[in-house]
Every structure is written in C-alpha cells, then in structure tokens.
C-alpha cells in the first residue's frame, strides 16, 4: 500500500499515538510506502529520505502502485519559497512550505493532478531551474524561524532539516539527520579552507554528531538553535550570540553542495 501527503504538514511520530514524539514532518507532496496498518495509524517509510514512523491514517491520501512507481522514477519539482498557498479547483487553499514536492507539476498550466485532485500553484514559486538557486540564499530564507525538534518548515525547523530543505530547494536530496549528513561529501580539514555553503558539524561529549550548520564564510555560520540565526564560529566551534560562550564544539566540515 502507498500514500502521499496532500496536506501542508504531516507529523511523523515514533509511536502510534498523538502524544508520542515527533520524529520529523512529511511535507506536502512527499510520498511513502505503508508497511503496517492499524485502525487509526499507519507506519510508513518516506521515499524522499527513508525516514520511518507513524502517521494518522486519516491524514494520508492513498495512491496506487502505478502512481507510486512514477513518483519514484520521476524527478519532482519543489516549492522554492519559504511559504505560499496552492489552490484547489474547489477554491480551497493549501499552505505549502519551502521544499514541498509538486508531483507531476505542469509548468505551462501551473498545476498538478494527483489523488483525484487538481491543484494550482504559481510557477514563480517553483524551483524550476535548480542550477540557479543558491543553497545559502535558500537557507537564509528561513532566518528567524523558531527551532522545533522534528520541524521541517518555516514556522518551526531543526538544524538538520534546515540543511535538508534548503538543499531540496536546490534539487539535491539529503538524509534527514546530521549523523547521516556528515557521511556525505568531501572532507575539509581546516576552517580556513572552507567555503560559503560548506556544512559544519558539532558533537556532544560522547562524540556523536548532534548539530549542523551552514557556513556563510569562515567566521559566520547559519544554524537553527533557539531560532535560525547567524552566529560567530572559529576552529573551536560556535560562540553563542546569546551568552557569548561556546555552545557547540566543531568536529567536521563537509562540502556537499
């Protein structure tokens, strides 16, 4: 069984309960495989990043295997602005955050048809030519968005989602969490050798990667902590703009995009 999210945001939870932890969010247009079905909940695998968890059954739209296969085999356009509305043919508004997937989007008609619905979305808000979309600029569009564990949208986002969503707006699919992201790309040995757009990773005392940011230059980083903001960085790590103390210890620099 297969499904797609045709709502603005869909929470993906650790257990089949509204009170359980939000692991991440499924954005509009993201599609998934259902591997367990309960009365009110389904356990899914999001095909865009492989994340697994539980969603409320009534919030999904079922699709058949043919549609699912075409979605998996076709490159999909995404929303390139932090927030905008799509309109249905019944004049209903659907909120779309940056990085939302636009399945089978017709650029000329400015519309898409999926799940028995026809949805209109302006091409001015679509990442059509991803080669001309700057990764750092896409991430900066989320400046001052509040931090939210598991969040993937402009109204609440965590550090690794900021990286993942901004990359998606540039046509690059990345894993969901920082421990996976640090395994990708080219290692940069020194901050002095880093470039704008390189990713910087930080760890806990146990040595496990727990945080990621995006370099604006070799002394400033954009990251989600409290809110998405710009903070000073040196070879020791991030110096908090709130306390003046080091808040995150630098452990790795990777060039991914």
UniProtKB/TrEMBL annotation:
Presence of the UniProt keyword Acyltransferase in the record: no
GO molecular function, one term: cysteine-type peptidase activity
SUPFAM superfamilies, alphabetized: Cysteine proteinases (SSF54001)
Coiled-coil residue windows: none
Pfam families attached to this UniProt entry: NLPC_P60, SH3_16
Signal peptide (residue range): none
One GO BP: proteolysis
Alphabetically ordered keywords of this record: Hydrolase, Protease, Thiol protease
Domain NlpC/P60 stretches: 129-257
Cross-referenced InterPro entries: NLP_P60_dom, Papain-like_cys_pep_sf, Peptidase_C40, SH3-like_bac-type, SH3_16
Domain SH3b stretches: 1-64
Key word Hydrolase present: yes
Family note: Belongs to the peptidase C40 family.
Protein name: NlpC/P60 family protein
Protein species of origin: Microbacter margulisiae
């Amino acid at each position: 069984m297969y499904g797609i999210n045709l709502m603005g945001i869909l929470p993906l939870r650790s257990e089949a309960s509204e009170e359980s932890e939000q692991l991440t969010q499924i954005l509009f247009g993201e599609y998934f495989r259902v591997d367990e079905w309960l009365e009110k909940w389904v356990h899914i695998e999001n095909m865009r990043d492989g994340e697994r968890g539980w969603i409320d059954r009534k919030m999904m739209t079922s699709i058949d295997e043919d549609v699912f296969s075409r979605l998996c085999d076709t490159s999909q356009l995404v929303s390139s602005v932090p927030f905008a509305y799509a309109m249905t043919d019944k004049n209903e508004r659907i909120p779309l955050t940056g990085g939302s997937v636009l399945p089978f989007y017709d650029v000329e008609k400015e519309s898409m048809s999926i799940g028995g619905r026809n949805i209109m979305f302006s091409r001015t808000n679509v990442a059509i030519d991803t080669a001309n979309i700057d990764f750092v600029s896409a991430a900066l569009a989320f400046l001052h968005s509040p931090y939210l564990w598991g969040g993937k949208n402009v109204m609440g986002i965590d550090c690794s989602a900021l990286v993942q969503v901004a990359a998606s707006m540039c046509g690059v699919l990345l894993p969901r969490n920082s421990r996976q992201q640090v395994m990708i790309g080219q290692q940069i040995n020194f901050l002095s050798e880093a470039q704008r757009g390189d990713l910087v990773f930080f760890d806990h005392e146990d040595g496990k990667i727990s945080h990621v940011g995006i370099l604006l230059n070799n002394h400033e980083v954009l990251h989600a902590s409290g809110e998405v903001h710009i903070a000073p960085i040196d070879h020791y790590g991030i110096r908090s703009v709130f306390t003046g103390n080091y808040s995150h210890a630098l452990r790795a620099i990777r060039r991914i995009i």
